[in-house]
Each structure stands twice: as C-alpha cells, then as structure tokens.
User: Which sequence fits this backbone?
C-alpha cells in the first residue's frame, strides 16, 4: 500500500476511534467494574465495596424485573416497531398512489409528512402530553364533543391507556421516516413490472404478495432493525411522558437504570442492569451487522 | 396502461390522506398556534386572542440563556463530528486496509449501543475528574454519540461519488486530505448537510446526558428548560408552548429543504436504484 494512503487512513480513523474508545469502550469496561460493587452516588470518591454478583442476582430475581423486561421487549419494542412498520407501509402505498399523483399532490403531501419527523422528540412529548391531558387536552375535548365519552380519560395515568398512548407518541414522531423510506423503495420499482403483471390479470393481493412486498423487503428489514434499537434503547419517550408511571407500570430497562442510579443513588445496581441491557443489545447488534451494516461496505466492493 | 382509479376510489384515497396528514401535522402546528395565544384562550378552538406575551415571559424567565447554550453546544458538536466522520467515512469507503471490516463493524455497533448504559460510568468518571457542568465534557459526549450514525450515512453518500474524480486529482498531485475537502466535499455537500442535520437533531433534542452532567441552572440546554415548566400539578403551558415553538423552528427549517437527501442516505443499501 502507498505510504501516504497509510498516513491518510491513520489520520482519518484515529480521531473517530479516540471518541468511540473513550466514550463507548472505556466507560463500558469501567461499568463492568462498578456493577460488582455497592457504589452509592453519595460516596462516589470511596469507590464502593466489592460484592461480586450480588447486584445481578438481586436484579434477575426481583419481581419488578420481569415487568421491566415485558414492558421493554413486548410493549416498547415488538408492539411499537410493528405498529410503525405496518402504518408506514400503508401510508407509503397511500401517498404513492395513482390518485395522489393524478391530483398533483405528491410535493404537498411530502412536505406535510415530514413535519412530525422535524419535530424534536422532546417537543413531540410536550405536545402529546398536552393533547392527552384530562383537563386541557384536545383529545378529551374532541371525544366528549363527539359524545363518545362523558368523563375525561386521564390517558397517561390510566393503566388501560398509558401504553397505547406512549406507542401513539412514538409512532407519530417516527412514522414519517419509515414512510419516506418505503416510498423511496416503491419509487425505485420499475413501472413496467407492475403493468406487465396487471396485463396478465394479477389481482391486487397477488401484486402485493409477489411484486411489492419482495421489492420492499430490504427496506422493511432495515427500518425494522433500526427502529428496534432506536426504541429499545430510548429513554425519553417513557421517562418524559410518564416518568415510568403510574407507579412503575410503564418502567422499561432504560428508565429502570436511570431510576436506580440517579434517583435511588445505587450506581452499582444500575450498572449491573446496564450490563444486562448491553448484552441483549449486543446480541441484536450482531444480527444488525450481518444484515444491514455489512451491506454498506459489501456493495461498495461490488463496483 | 395507466388506468385512472374510479371516482369513489379517488375520493376515498383523498379523504384518508387528508385525515392522516391532519393527524401528522396538527400537533406541531398547534405548538406554534398555542404559543401565540393568551393563556386563557390557549386551548380553545373557538376563542382566539393573540399575543406575544408567552415569548416575553419566557425570555424574562431566562430562556435566552438556554437557547444560546443549546445553539453553541450543538453547532460546535455538529461541526466537529462531521469533520471527523467525513474523514473516517472516506477512509472506509475508498481504501482496503487491514482490519477495515472489523473497524467498520465496531463503528456500526456504536449505533445499536444503548447510551443509557454509559450515563452511569460517564457521570462517575466526569464527577471524579471534576468535569461536571463543563462544556468540554458535553461537546465530547455529543460528538461521540453522533459519529456512528454519521459514518454510516456518509459511507452511503460516498458510494454515489465516482472514484474517477478522486483518481484524477491524485494524478495531479493532490493529497488525500485535499481530495476529501476540495473535490469530494463539494460534490457530496447535500449529503453532508443532511448528515449534519441528523447530528444536529440528535444533540438539539438530547436530554439524558445533559440532565446527568449539567446541574447548574445557567448551563442548562433547551430540552432541560422545557421540562422545568411541568409542575407536579400545575403546568405553565404558556412557557412550555413558546419554548417548544422555538425548539422546533430550527429543525423544521433544516428538514424541509433537505428531506430528499436525508431519506436517500438512510435507505442506502435498502433501496435498489
């Protein structure tokens, strides 16, 4: 290899890996160390006492932990991601339809579609906390005006409504990105292919099953995977919406780590919960690497 | 064969589209509308009384500090992380060197890594070093959280830049650094701006590290200030709405002209052209 190539590669990669090493690797290794201690936030300088696997045993046997895992995996991730992908597909087909194009509404709909995506998540949560508020919120006013309900529903404090409400907020905020990706994929589908199938008398269901979905598959996989780690790892959607409440009803892994570490002050226990969460995400990350990230470089080599 | 759908299908499509878009636009639109209404008419669809009072009260409460803090921190972090990421992405995209696959994979794993895990150790390390409430610490964190996704996006954009251009410039005696910043940078400028916008949104809306690492009132960023006005029982909606409108305005102005580039970068590898 050319000497100045080596020099440039080093120059280009050393700063990036300085940040990654100092921010991800070193603190993570340090976290392993803390997770075996009873370090308390009020005795930071003492360093805590070494207690081996006690934090892990307490964590994995605590009754609250099963609830936390269920909330994180089923509600936040499985339900949250599925709703987003299904609605994103439906909206992409709708906005890419012949009617929208015939009425020349493509540009306008794209501009309007992007608005929730351009709304910072901290603001999205603020607005939806207002919309869902039982006293001043628009959702209750509207439902009462329609005559569907007599009493306002405290959406974010009622165990029946709180999870659907959180999913609603996340879906609203992230739907444009998913939809636009699917629309980009749909637009790269050769029109002749669909026309030929239609001439051959293919039904709508057959078109969807044999032409559209196979073409959309890579986009669906990428979006499902990215949505999974964006949501699984997210802290603010639950914390700033409900504070893990009512009680600990909507507690997820991210809020559990924050509450144990920064509110109860048990940094050692919080670190152990972090290690468990990191192991789950690393396993997932390996799948992501294999199916998505690797493609970014592999296709480069095909040229 | 491009047969037009029947009138009833067209009507249904337009109706559903209008409903879906109203649902998507309404919450953000209402932030701006409510921020301009007096507190007693703020949540009424029928009574309208417009005022700038919410904004004057918000700035009197010191929100201007939070705006400046967020702007300086985010712009600084975005410039630095984009510079670092463009160089790294170019190296990954154009050269084959030992460990390339492993190094790229480790950058990509950074995307899937939960930051919440790092808050505890980063907090302890900075606290012991006396680096809480420190702009340098925040800048470091924001650059580090932006790099993995930025590199992923930039590698995608670089694929669209023909290698022949780089090679011609090298023949003419340019260094690789010059190739990146004089030849490639202008060509992929929209992609770089789209990447920088993602990084900006990430920092602009960042709550977790700022709440842990910034405890002094005068250092707080906009997202932290926004949630100060939520009380246990009473919420100061006038301040909240005006602050939310100011937080949304810059990202809205960046996203609208850039959306095409932002989508193409994200779906690189998932959309066959």
Assistant:
């Amino acid at each position: 290899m050319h000497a100045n190539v080596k020099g440039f590669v080093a120059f280009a990669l050393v700063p990036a890996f300085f940040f990654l090493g100092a921010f991800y690797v070193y603190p993570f290794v340090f976290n392993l160390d803390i997770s075996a201690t009873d370090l308390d936030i009020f005795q930071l300088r003492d360093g805590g006492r070494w207690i081996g696997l006690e934090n892990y045993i307490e964590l994995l046997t605590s009754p609250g932990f099963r609830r936390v895992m269920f909330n994180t995996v089923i509600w936040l991730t499985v339900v949250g991601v599925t709703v987003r992908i299904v609605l994103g597909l439906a909206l992409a087909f709708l906005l890419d339809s012949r009617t929208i194009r015939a009425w020349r509404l493509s540009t306008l709909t794209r501009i309007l579609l992007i608005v929730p995506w351009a709304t910072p998540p901290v603001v999205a949560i603020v607005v939806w906390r207002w919309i869902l508020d039982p006293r001043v919120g628009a959702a209750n006013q509207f439902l009462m005006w329609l005559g569907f309900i007599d009493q306002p529903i405290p959406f974010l404090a009622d165990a029946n409504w709180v999870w659907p409400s959180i999913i609603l907020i996340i879906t609203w905020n992230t739907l444009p990105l998913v939809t636009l990706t699917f629309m980009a994929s749909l637009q790269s589908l050769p029109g002749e292919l669909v026309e030929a199938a239609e001439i051959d008398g293919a039904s709508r269901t057959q078109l969807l099953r044999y032409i559209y979905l196979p073409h959309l598959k890579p986009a669906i996989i990428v979006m499902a995977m990215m949505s999974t780690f964006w949501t699984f790892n997210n802290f603010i959607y639950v914390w700033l919406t409900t504070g893990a409440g009512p009680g600990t009803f909507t507690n997820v892994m991210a809020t559990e780590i924050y509450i144990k570490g920064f509110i109860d002050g048990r940094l050692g226990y919080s670190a152990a919960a972090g290690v468990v969460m990191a192991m789950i995400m690393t396993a997932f990350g390996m799948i992501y690497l294999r199916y998505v990230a690797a493609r970014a470089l592999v296709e480069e080599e095909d040229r | 064969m491009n047969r037009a759908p029947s009138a009833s299908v067209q009507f249904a499509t337009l109706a559903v589209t209008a409903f879906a878009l109203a649902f998507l636009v309404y919450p953000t639109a209402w932030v701006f509308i409510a921020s301009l209404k007096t507190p007693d008419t703020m949540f009424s669809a029928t009574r309208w009384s417009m005022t700038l009072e919410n904004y004057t009260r918000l700035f009197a409460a010191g929100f201007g500090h939070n705006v400046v803090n967020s702007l300086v921190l985010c712009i600084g972090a975005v410039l630095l992380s984009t510079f670092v990421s463009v160089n790294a992405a170019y190296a990954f995209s154009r050269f084959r060197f030992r460990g390339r696959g492993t190094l790229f994979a480790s950058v990509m794993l950074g995307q899937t890594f939960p930051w919440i895990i790092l808050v505890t150790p980063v907090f302890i390390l900075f606290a012991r070093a006396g680096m809480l409430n420190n702009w340098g610490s925040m800048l470091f964190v924001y650059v580090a959280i932006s790099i993995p996704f930025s590199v992923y996006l930039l590698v995608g954009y670089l694929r669209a830049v023909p290698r022949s251009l780089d090679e011609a410039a090298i023949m003419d005696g340019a260094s690789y650094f010059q190739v990146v910043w004089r030849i490639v940078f202008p060509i992929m400028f929209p992609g770089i701006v789209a990447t920088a916008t993602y990084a900006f949104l990430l920092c602009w809306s960042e709550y977790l590290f700022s709440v842990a690492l910034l405890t002094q009132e005068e250092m707080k960023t906009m997202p932290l200030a926004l949630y100060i006005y939520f009380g246990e029982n009473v919420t100061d909606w006038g301040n909240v709405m005006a602050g939310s409108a100011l937080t949304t305005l810059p990202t809205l102005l960046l996203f609208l002209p850039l959306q095409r580039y932002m989508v193409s970068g994200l779906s690189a590898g998932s959309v066959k052209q």
Remarks:
- Chain B has twelve helices and no strands.
- Chain B has a mean pLDDT of 90.
